[in-house]
Amino acid sequence: MDYVLPDVVSDRLEVVRRRDPGEFAYLIRPGGYVPPHMDLLVDAIVALSMGKNVLLKGPTGAGKTKFAETLSNLFQQPMFSVNCSVDLDAESLLGFKTLSYEEGKQVIDFVPGPVTNAMKEGSFLYIDEVNMAKPETLPLINGVLDYRRTITNPFTNEIVTAKDGFGVIAAINEGYIGTVPLNEALKNRFIVIEVPYIEGEQLKRLITTTTNLTDERLVDLFVRLSGDLITAVYQGKLPEEAASIRALLDACDLSTLITPKRAILRAITDKLEEEREREFVNNIAETLF
User: Which Gene3D superfamilies does the entry link to (predicted)?
Assistant: First the structure.
């Protein structure tokens, strides 16, 4: 079967194929996600264009939400979001009934949720931290995630079929407290894309375009700090959140008004639970700054 990419996506995909992050950057809004390997973006674009669901898998702060927002922007598609938690239920996904007044009379209205809104409008649905939801909750939308692209709304008995353009992007952080393994039936409904940390020149570009830090020397030092933290995470010396790119960008912003070491303390170090971990980060910051 031949799949025809929308013109707007095809044009962007051609730029991505040239493997030129600098040229591609102007196509996405400021602060958008430019991946460390362009194949990640190519594969996500192709999968969504073919009607596949995409699961972004990677450490916290690696840019999964930015990745999803960038894909939404590239396809020129609005994106409805679901933030998963143990409290997620059918109403959070599909909508809920409420009382309202019409011509002075009390009536029952149905307020659609993010899943039904995205399906009816033919836009993107983003499911964040999908493995935080209770195992019995997400199977409610199995029919939405497979070839049927259909669900029977239990609150209205309406059969909702997704319009053309509907797509699902989900994100997962594995191994965190409160998360549960995805069951095979759910996982098999996704194309999985591993999202690594952004490093080197791309991280430098991200800092200069999304934070207030303009001192090139400090930018270079923060890039080195990030590299050291990522290495420590891979070696098992620090938890993943210590190398969060989101936290690093916060530290860069703070360092424009307070000293870099204090900025690192507030944005990164003080989030860590163990004294050993905090001391490790402090030693790296002391060495660099």
Answer: P-loop containing nucleotide triphosphate hydrolases
Per-residue confidence (pLDDT) for residue 149, from 0 to 100:
93
How many helical (H) and strand (E) elements, i.e. helices and strands, does the chain have? 13, 9
CATH 3.40.50.300 fits 7-194, yes or no: yes
SS3 141: helix
Domain boundaries of the chain, sorted by first residue: 7-194, 200-288
The token duo for 11 is: 């044009």
pTM here is 0.80
Judged against a pLDDT cut of 60, whether residue 20 lies above it is answered with: no
Residue 191: band (very low, low, confident or very high) from pLDDT cuts 50, 70, 90: very high
The pLDDT tens digits of the residues spanning 207-231 come to: 998 899 999 999 999 999 999 999 9
Three-class secondary structure of residue 110 per DSSP: strand
